[in-house]
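Run log, item B.
One chain of 417 residues. Sequence copied directly from the ordering sheet:
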Amino acid sequence: MEIRRTAPVKLDVPDERRDDLHETVKQFLYCANRACDYCWDKYDYDDCITSKATAEKALYDELREETDYLHANLVEKGIRRAVEAVKGCVERWKKRQRVSQPEFDSWSVVYDKRAATIHDEMVSLATPDGRVECEYVCPADDSRETPYSEYVANDDYEFRTSSLQYDRVTEEFYFHVGTRKYDRDHDTDGSPNTGHQTVLGIDLGVNNLAVASTGRFWHGGEYDHWIEEFENRRAAMQQKETQAAHNCLLRLGKRERAWRKQYLHTVANGIVAEAVETGCDIIVFEVLDNIRDRLPWADWYHIWAFRRLQEYVGYKAPEQDVAVEQIEPNHTSQRCSRLDCGFTHEGNRDGQHFECQNCGYAVDADYNAAKNVGLRYARNVHHSLRSSHTSSSGDAPVDVRIHGGTLNGSTGQYSAA
């Protein structure tokens, strides 16, 4: 069985080389956005470019020149990030979902073995101005177990595609080291068990912007608070009806758009990190068709946030070897997520509280829905395998990651973490 983990490690970047890393992300994002411009066609999804080979052949040489010869691998990664994002948009477009051209503005650079060299105590990162060697900042107490000691310094794990991140508040750099190992004890023939998959279900809502089937919550209160603050400031400026107020409105609009994007990027990063840290292979959302009918109390900015959040996760997750899928949302909020029950009734849910009228199971409504999202995907895979006779036992090897363990959607078996 393949096990993947991501370990965030703080870096000690020499002061004279910090600008080199900032320039690297600037050029990397330029490659990604330039590739999006090339791949995207706003009139017909059939004219969008979804082939990595085609995009690289058309853009690689030009981007190397336009970026002062950014490392070849980083140019390729930027192009591939764009292609994956466009491909995800095309799939949603074909389902008549609203999409827009992907745009990249989050501080993040993707590295693999060619552009980054991992050592025991430092990492060497490619930049437009040569390599930057950064030492790891580890706890003084060597006896304390950390993600670094458990995965990065562990010879059982090998280095995989990773990402460089920057915390604008603390002005610190972090290297999110992707690692992988094969657990031979869980294989039946000594080879990786590629058929087994673990799912992370995600429910999107108003009070909770996103909830994972593991019980991780991304609350919507802060998002709603700041949107309201921006609206109040906008209303106050509109009453003045002066040129100065008009100019302030324009600047406020830019700040608001930047804040909303940055906030959702943070949530998207958290969702992907939750999938990686809990060993999930797939992140599953509900299809957003008819979302206004299902959530009539949701404001425009909630609907915008749902769609943009799925887009962000859609291109961030593949960078960590995590797939993103969607399922139909039929009754996920009204169905009891206990496998031995499954009773579905509109009376089960009352606002944020869910209590099954059949078995009495009581839990946060959004968490119940997140588990149902994952379980529905697992059952769909199970039925698909049975109908195609690809599983000799008739059971799909798909588990749903929940708080404290996993549930098998086909057998109902629970496994503790």
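Observations after the first pass:
- The chain has nine helices and 18 strands.
- Confidence is low (pLDDT under 50) at residues 186-194, 388-396.
Flagged for discussion on Thursday.
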